[in-house]
Amino acid sequence: MKQVASLRYGVIFKKAFAQPDVFKAFVKAVLGIDLEIDHVETEKSFDPLIGKVELRFDLFAEDLKNRIIVDIQHARYEDHYDRFLHYHCAALLDLIDSSKSYRPDVRVFTIVVLTSGDRYKKDVLTIDFDPKDLDGLGVGEISHKLIYLCPKYVNSETPSDYREWLEAIQDTLDEQVDDSHYRHGAIQKIFTTIEKDHITPKERAEMIEEYNRAELARKEALESWHEGKELGRLEGKLEGKQEGKLEGKLESKLEIAKSMVAEGFALDTIAKLTGLTTADLEKLV
After folding, report:
1. Would the pLDDT of 14 be above 60?
2. Do the Cβ atoms of 52 and 68 come closer than 8 Å?
3. Confidence of residue 281 (pLDDT cuts 50, 70, 90)
4. Apex 47 CA angle, 43 and 51, nearest 5
5. What are the residue ranges of helices labelled H in the chain?
6. What's this model's pTM, rounded to 2 decimal places?
7. Which tens digits make up the pLDDT trace of 240-274?
């Protein structure tokens, strides 16, 4: 077993996948594309800004020869589907400045790796921009694509080309891997890169900060859940008491109505005095 830092941490994920050969191998497995790059940017942003919010891409590479842009995001947010759709569209908008039309001769792909799981519990989800007919068949007009990968839910149906990659990512989360289980050279390189002995003091500090932020968010969410549960219990008790009072009032009215029926009062008179309906009173007769 090899002791490694978890790929759950953004700083570790970027350390591993910012290596051009690893980046290219992963993209080849997921997209089936052979990139020609010699550099991967981390924390990529646009200058000037696109829109009014500064975006930072975890990993970003552009193949100038084949006109392909690929960015890889590693995070889990409440809004990660919308968030990274926005990032993807920003990358598309950045191309317009150097394009003669709204159809730039560049393909843009975004790969999102969700190491913490996801509410839909799917191993692979895709946003495909290609126009489709009513049978769901694309026409091959637009190739831009987002792919959301969740290693936690890898199964026998996960495409074999990248199943080993997702299994490897998931395997690191407990900070130890059986590297003999993996055959791909780029995956072996990841394990070597993130071995605990190869983690720098600065990277350890970032891991600690990331862990503490995640723990704080978890505790706040848990506290909010408990508060909501207690509020629900209180509201339930109040509703129960209110319903009990209403039932008690109804029983009292019925008892009074029974006495008035026995005394010979007219039903319409009893209805006016008690607030009961004539239909209710007729059941007492």
Report:
1. yes
2. no
3. low
4. 95
5. 10-17, 20-31, 80-96, 160-171, 185-193, 201-262, 267-274, 278-282
6. 0.75
7. 545 444 445 666 667 776 766 666 666 776 777 67
Q: What is the domain partition of the chain in residue ranges?
A: 2-199, 222-282
Q: Give 4's DSSP letter.
A: B
Calpha distance 176→173 (Å, rounded)? 8
The sign of the dihedral angle between the CA atoms of 95, 100, 106, 110 is positive
Instruction: List CB contacts of 141: < 8 A, sequence separation 6 or more.
Output: 130, 131
pLDDT, tens only, 184-201:
999 999 999 999 999 999
Yes or no: say if 59 and 42 are a contact pair by the CB < 8 Å rule: yes
CB 110 within 8 A of CB 71: yes
- The full DSSP string for 80-140 is HHHHHHHHHHHHHHHHHTT-SSSS-S-EEEEEEE-TT--TT--SEEEEE-S-B-TTS-B-S
Backbone angles phi, psi at 109, to 5 degrees: -130, 140
Residue for token pair 């500090």:
205
Query: Is the N-terminal amide bond of 48 cis, ω within 30° of 0?
Result: yes
User: In this structure, are strands 68-74 and 107-113 parallel, antiparallel, or unpaired?
Assistant: parallel
CA-to-CA distance for 231 and 220, rounded, in angstroms?
Answer: 16
pLDDT digits (tens, 9 = 90+) for 70-121: 888 887 777 899 989 998 988 888 887 777 888 888 899 999 999 888 889 9
